[in-house]
Design goal:
Number of domains: 2
Shape: globular
Distance between the termini: 38 Å
Strand content: 5-15%
């Protein structure tokens, strides 16, 4: 399964929006299967954007994660990725210039766009 940065963004923002700070269980994202969300939850745990646990269930399509809450880095990503216009501009630039991008580079790029919007260089 390929990593889907749009889904990663939706998941991080959904966890951040939870009133208690704890991720809803099960976490459901419209337009995505439980297997897709589970795999991307695994990626988020592995990347350190969320705390949770990873499981390998017999019969599942791959590793799955269960998210508990966002880490500091998860909140930093949410802050950088929250603005829809900034997100679309960043993803458009990525597709046009590089085709794909790592999460770390994307977060840096979003942060640069945020700084530019604030008049910081």
């Amino acid at each position: 399964m390929k990593r889907d940065l749009e889904l990663i963004r939706k998941m991080v923002l959904a966890v951040e929006d939870a009133p208690s700070g704890l991720a809803p269980h099960p976490l459901r994202i419209d337009g995505h299967s439980d297997a897709q969300v589970g795999y991307h939850a695994y990626l988020l745990v592995d990347a350190g954007l969320v705390k949770g646990h990873i499981s390998l269930v017999q019969g599942s399509e791959g590793p799955e994660g269960v998210i508990s809450y966002l880490t500091w880095d998860g909140h930093e990503f949410a802050d950088a990725a929250r603005d829809e216009t900034r997100w679309k501009n960043a993803m458009g630039d990525v597709r046009e210039k590089a085709g794909t991008v790592t999460l770390g580079v994307l977060t840096q790029f979003l942060t640069i766009l945020m700084k530019n919007a604030l008049g910081m260089s």
